[in-house]
Amino acid sequence: MTAETKTELTTVYQVKGMTCGHCEGAVSGEISELAGVSSVTAVASTGQVTVVSAAPLGEEAVRAAVDEAGYELV
């Protein structure tokens, strides 16, 4: 019997325009809908959004999700 190793990738994005918890939730909600994303942590004070996913995400997909939330991927 062999043990399966699940590898996850953590990527940090810089998002412009987040100022509060509502902003964090909006950005996290949109990015979390992308295929393969297992967790999203947005921090308004730094503008950083940390995404854990099963595979690398396309920048255009992340940009579209951030735009949908009303913010800008830097």
Keywords for this structure?
single chain; 74 residues; alpha+beta; four-stranded antiparallel β-sheet; 2 helices; globular
Any chance you could write out the topology, listing elements then pairs?
Blueprint lengths: L8 E8 L4 H12 L4 E7 L4 E6 L5 H11 L2 E2 L1
Antiparallel strand pairs: 1-3, 1-4, 2-3
Description of the molecule:
Strands 2-3-1-4 form a 4-stranded antiparallel beta sheet. Helix 1 (21-32) packs across helix 2 (59-69). The mean pLDDT is 94. Helix content is 31%, strand content 31%. It is built from 2 helices and 4 strands; from the N terminus they run βαββαβ. It is globular. With 74 residues, it is of the alpha+beta class. The protein has helices at residues 21-32, 59-69; strands spanning 9-16, 37-43, 48-53, 72-73.
Strand order of the largest sheet: 2-3-1-4
**DSSP E strands, number:** 4
The helix content is 25-40%
**Alpha plus pi helix count:** 2
Identify low-pLDDT runs.
none
Rounded average pLDDT: 94
Structural class: alpha+beta
Helix and strand element order: EHEEHE
Give the termini distance in whole angstroms: 46 Å
Supply Rg.
13 Å
Oligomer: single chain
Strand content: 25-35%
The biggest beta sheet reads: 4 strands, antiparallel
How would you describe the shape? globular
